Amino acid sequence: QAGCRLQSVDALSRLPNRPSVAGRSRKERLCGAIRARRPAVGLSQEALAFEAGVHRTYVSQPEHGIANPCVAKLADLAGVLDVEAWQLLREAEIAYWSPVRLRRLAR
């Protein structure tokens, strides 16, 4: 996993940074999914980072929307959170494509 570094939110273009109905981008929702699951499994940022084999700031920055983890590290973090990486991405996507948003697009 060499070369797997945090990328600034502005530089990461894989998930479009368009605001959703609630005013939060997909990236912000992904960060929210990570942030919501960590205390749910009883882990501090330090504990999650240790278990995933990363520095604490690698957990802190995505949780605050400052940066996004690469896919490999997202998978490591998800594994410690007892979910699959796709589940975190799915939560972000479901929140983005809410029924309200779909109704607005159908107009």
Protein described:
It is a single chain. The protein is elongated. It has helices at 26-40, 45-52, 56-63, 71-80, 85-96, 99-106, and strands at residues 7-8, 67-68. The protein contains 6 helices and 2 strands, in the order E-H-H-H-E-H-H-H. Helix 1 (26-40) crosses helix 5 and helix 2 (45-52) crosses helix 3 (56-63). It has 107 residues and is mainly alpha-helical. The relative contact order is 0.19.
Structural class: mainly alpha
List the secondary-structure elements in sequence, H or E: EHHHEHHH
Largest sheet: 2 strands, antiparallel
Q: What percentage of the residues does DSSP assign to strands (E)?
A: under 5%
Give, in spatial order, the strands making up the sheet with the most strands: 1-2
Measured as a percent range, the helix fraction is 55-70%
Number of strands: 2
- Please report the number of helical segments: 6
Radius of gyration equals 14 Å
Low-confidence stretches: 9-21
Q: Roughly how many Å apart are the termini?
A: 45 Å
Primary descriptors:
4% strand, 2 strands, 57% helix, 6 helices, mainly alpha, two-stranded antiparallel sheet, 107 residues
Brief synopsis:
This protein has 107 residues and is mainly alpha-helical. It is elongated, with a radius of gyration of 14 Å.
SSE map:
Elements: E1 7-8, H1 26-40, H2 45-52, H3 56-63, E2 67-68, H4 71-80, H5 85-96, H6 99-106
Antiparallel strand pairs: 1-2
Helix pairs in contact: 1-5, 2-3, 2-4, 4-5
